[in-house]
Amino acid sequence: MKKLLLFALASFSLAGSAQIETSLNWAGIGPTGGLNFFLDDSTDLVTIDCDYHTGYALFTDPKDSLLYGLFRGTGEAYGDNNLYRINPFNGEIELAIDFVGTEFTSATINTDGSTIYLINGGGVATLGDIIAYDVETGTETFLTSALGEEGESTYGMAYHPLDDQLYIYEGSEVGETRLQKIDVFVLSNEYGALIGFDGFITGAMWQGINYEFIVNTAYDCSFLKTVELTTNELEEFYNSCMPETSDLANIHTIYAEGDSVAICPETGDFTTIELMYDVNSFEWYKDGVLLTDETEATLTINEPGIYQAAMEIKTTTAMLFSQEITVYLDPTCTSSIDEQMNDMISVYPNPVQNTLTIAAETNIQSITINDLKGNVLYTNSQGNFSSTEIDFSDLKTGVYIVEVITDNGTCIKKIVK
Q1: How far apart are CA 58 and CA 61, in angstroms?
Q2: Where are any strands of DSSP class E within 276-384?
Q3: Whole-Å CA distances, 302 to 35, 104, 273, 328
């Protein structure tokens, strides 16, 4: 495949020369082909321009977390859009799929990265046709048509990672803006109007552990979200008047066992965090402090703390921070814990949803519940009881440490919600 240089120059919307930092792991593609990096605490962003005429879609390959970008190059004929693979940090772009004579206007990928879905927006193909492209064999198959009788345009499309369905936003400056859901297996279509919203939606993506659905418009700087798969609960999420953005994608930056990881150093049970991309420069942080001696792309962790990686965006001063990885000591591995006490105390259910029950065969003196950062969330030191129920309904999803002190010793258990 032919490798091309993606970025021709870097331009900033921020004044001054101080380092720009962002932890909102979004990238956007503009109608002029620029790649946008979003900041989560202001309406500013970093934009890196590239020599492409039109950008239509941007999505993440789940196999390796590189980006796919759907572009029409400068000088190329209308109706000749191609799919490129993008490393957002070192500026490399690689032609992945050469489409000829088809004006695809949106694209997305399924959960395992085996199938890419594309919508025809014109050219020699039928408007609204959805094509399934098999990545391994390179074959195209007609799936279904996305347009109903009132369809005007189809630019926003995202594959849902939980229910294996395509969600497509249709709309234009005139007419009704609609959400369409297509089951890719039985090819059933459902339509619904977006209540209270009339705009030219051009992009869509899922984000976060709750899979919030984010849609964006190209011309009025709007980003809206819904946490439910409904059409009448869209709300403004992020409003930034920026270079026009056609589509959005999450940038996955690091490999880790999870956002919270237990280790047991005394038994050699460590963990690692690894960069996903070959980047120009990067830094490792622990508890917000730069680890000056850590220069490898893989960080081995043998002590608790909150860890992050920061990666330079091209040759700019902008640093994109990864999510925080919390590493904590596994209380069940410490030699100070009496194994017999663990058998004498029951803590259930695990995982817990609303109510946690603690029952002991001996007298309980106190109970303490901490999160993985050491914050005390619950304490009961009244003593002289053998069982109790604790309300977990208001606590967030995550891992918690329950310490039970009895007349006969201490028991520590790890609870998941």
Answers
A1: 10
A2: 282-286, 289-290, 298-301, 305-312, 318-321, 325-329, 345-348, 355-371, 376-380
A3: 37, 49, 12, 10
Sign of CA dihedral 352, 355, 360, 366: positive
Residue 406 CA to residue 387 CA, distance in Å, equals 11
CA-based nearest residue to 90, from 282, 272, 255: 282
Long-range contact set of residues 31-40: C-beta below 8 Å, sequence gap at least 24: 31/55, 31/218, 31/244, 31/246, 32/243, 32/244, 33/71, 34/243, 35/6, 35/7, 35/86, 35/88, 36/242, 36/243, 36/245, 37/88, 37/313, 37/318, 37/320, 38/238, 38/240
- pLDDT tens, 222-260? 565 554 444 445 555 555 545 567 788 888 899 998 888
Four-CA torsion 92, 97, 100, 101, nearest 10 degrees = -90
Cβ–Cβ < 8 Å for 304, 327: yes
Count other Cβ atoms within 10 Å, centred on residue 115.
18
What is the tens place of the pLDDT at every residue in 145-162? 765 444 455 667 888 777
Whole-number average pLDDT of the chain:
75
- 20-78: pLDDT as tens digits: 677 778 888 876 667 777 765 445 567 666 556 678 889 999 888 889 988 876 555 55
Instruction: Measure the N-to-C terminal CA separation of the chain; round to a whole number of Å.
Output: 47
Compute the distance between CA of residue 56 and CA of residue 69 in angstroms, rounded to an integer.
8
Burial class of residue 209 in the structure, from the number of CB atoms within 10 Å of its CB (0-12 exposed, 13-18 middle, 19+ buried): exposed
Pair 253, 309: CB distance under 8 Å: yes
Q: Which two tokens stand for residue 413?
A: 């258990």
Give every CB contact of residue 362 below 8 A, 6+ residues apart in sequence.
344, 386, 406, 407, 408
Q: Is 267 helix (H, G, I), strand (E, B) or coil?
A: helix
Nearest Cα neighbor of 321 from 282, 277, 276 is 282
DSSP 8-state assignment for residue 201: E
How far is residue 28's CA from residue 275's CA, in Å, rounded to a whole number?
A: 21
**Structural domains in the chain?**
3-250 (2.120.10.30), 254-329 (2.60.40.10), 334-416 (2.60.40.3080)
**Two structure tokens written together for 411:** 């028991």
Tokens linked to 84:
């490129």
The structure's pTM equals: 0.69
